Structure formats: C-alpha cells, structure tokens
From TrEMBL:
It catalyses: guanosine(46) in tRNA + S-adenosyl-L-methionine = N(7)-methylguanosine(46) in tRNA + S-adenosyl-L-homocysteine. This is tRNA (guanine-N(7)-)-methyltransferase. S-adenosyl-L-methionine binds at residues 76, 101, 128, 151. GO terms for molecular function: tRNA (guanine(46)-N7)-methyltransferase activity. The gene is trmB. It holds the Pfam family Methyltransf_4. It comes from the Bacteria. Substrate binds at residues 155, 187, 224-227. It is an enzyme of class 2 (transferase).
C-alpha cells in the first residue's frame, strides 16, 4: 500500500475525499442479461484516470453525438436504481437524460428499466460526479441538474464526505447553463439546511422560492423506494430549487 499522497497518485489510488464508498454487488439474472445486451448502447464508455470511477480529465463528452440529437440535457447525480431518471425520460421524451452513478447493480437496473420501456433518451455514466462536472461535461451544457437523496453521512465525523459542498456548487455553476435549474431533495432536515446555506452562498445561484426557502415537491420526481424508506422512518422530505444566474 502507498505511504504518501505522491506514492498513491503514482500507483493509481484516489487521493481525494469522495461522497461514496465502493461496494461490490452481484447482478441478478435479469440485470445481467440487460447489461450484456444493452450496456454497449446505453452506458457511455469513458477513458479512466486514477480509479475505476474516475474519468480522464482530457475527455469531454460530445453530448449531441451521445444522444444522436440536440435536446435539453438533464443530469441526475446518484441515480440509484434509475426509478426517477427512467420515469422522467419516459414522461418527457423531448429531453435527454444522463444518469451518473458509481454502483454497477444500480446502473444495470437502470439499463433494464430503460430497455423495458424502449427509451432512447437515456444514457448512463459510471463515474465520480465531481469529475463529471469538472471536465467531462462541456461548460454550460446542462439544462437541469438533479441531486435527489444523496447519502446524508449523518454522523458529524463523516460530514466531510457529503456531496453538496461549496466546491460542488462551483462545479455545478460551471456545468449548468445560465437560466438552468438545480433541483435537490433530501429526507434529512439538517442536510437540507446545509444545502440551503451552501448553494445560497454561491453568487451563481438564486433560490427560486426566496432566500432560505424550500420548494414544493417537484412534480417530475417520482416517489422512489428510497424516498419511501424515509417516509417509513418518519422523516419529512425537503425539495430545493435553484436557478443558475
């Protein structure tokens, strides 16, 4: 194992703090079949850098070529099992959807859902979202950015792993077009407060519903199994909506 940061970089280890922990997971037969038959079409093959979920910083996604058309782009960070992104893609076929996720079973389930519905406006990217927003996506290419129910890392010592930070807000400002939208949702009230503070402090964004205000439930966000767990545990859901200025 590397003993210093320099040695870690030289040996291909990730040296930054990320908001996820890599977990192994087996695909069930249906997921495996969908992956084998459709991943080449739906999952964007990107060159890697340091880690399995990294993206070579020299690589820039050609959005129009990826979807074979010009259309508004919605990017969901942490798409999980694909419930939200597939539902939205089916409901709004005039938009393109890019699902960013690190866990292979979640990606495979999303591929399965999309192919069952015959969708052509969904693509998937297995990568660290921060890298995708930093270099992979062209500047100002995103019409809407979705971050729904990111891991709250609720223990104080783990807050450094939270996804929504001042640095992420800077990256989001780079990727979202002027006038575009950043939508978020969480079932942890304290995390919602942090999101409001962090994004509200960034001059590139304005809270659509007023300073420090929460948004009504986004009608385009289907209730997922993850959200259902939050309701079952007695936690309320907070939606937030910011506009890129």
């Amino acid at each position: 194992m590397p003993e210093t940061l320099d040695e870690a970089r030289e040996q291909g280890f990730r040296t930054d703090i990320v908001s996820f922990v890599r977990r192994s997971g087996r695909l069930n037969p249906r997921q495996q079949r969908a992956w084998d038959e459709h991943a080449a079409q739906l999952v964007v093959d990107v060159p890697r850098a340091e880690a399995r979920t990294s993206v070579d910083p020299a690589y820039v996604l050609d959005v129009a070529a990826t979807f074979d058309r010009e259309a508004p782009l919605v990017v969901e960070v942490g798409s999980g099992l694909g419930e939200a992104v597939v539902h939205a893609a089916e409901a709004t076929p005039e938009r393109d959807f890019l699902a960013v996720e690190v866990y292979t079973p979640g990606l495979a389930q999303t591929v399965l859902r999309a192919t069952q519905r015959g969708l052509t406006n969904v693509r998937l990217l297995q990568a660290n979202a921060a890298e995708v927003l930093t270099t992979t996506l062209p500047e100002g290419s995103v019409d809407e950015l979705w971050v729904f129910f990111p891991d709250p890392w609720h223990k104080a010592r783990h807050h450094k792993r939270r996804l929504v930070t001042p640095s992420l807000a800077e990256l989001a400002a780079r990727a979202i077009r002027p006038g575009g939208t950043w939508r978020l949702a969480t079932d942890w009230a304290e995390y919602a407060d942090q999101m409001l503070e962090v994004i509200g402090a960034n001059p590139s964004f304005v809270n659509v519903h007023g300073v420090g205000a929460v948004a009504p439930r986004f009608e385009g966000r289907v209730r997922t199994s993850f959200e259902g767990k939050g309701h079952a545990a007695g936690r309320s859901i907070t939606d937030l909506e910011f506009r890129r200025v």
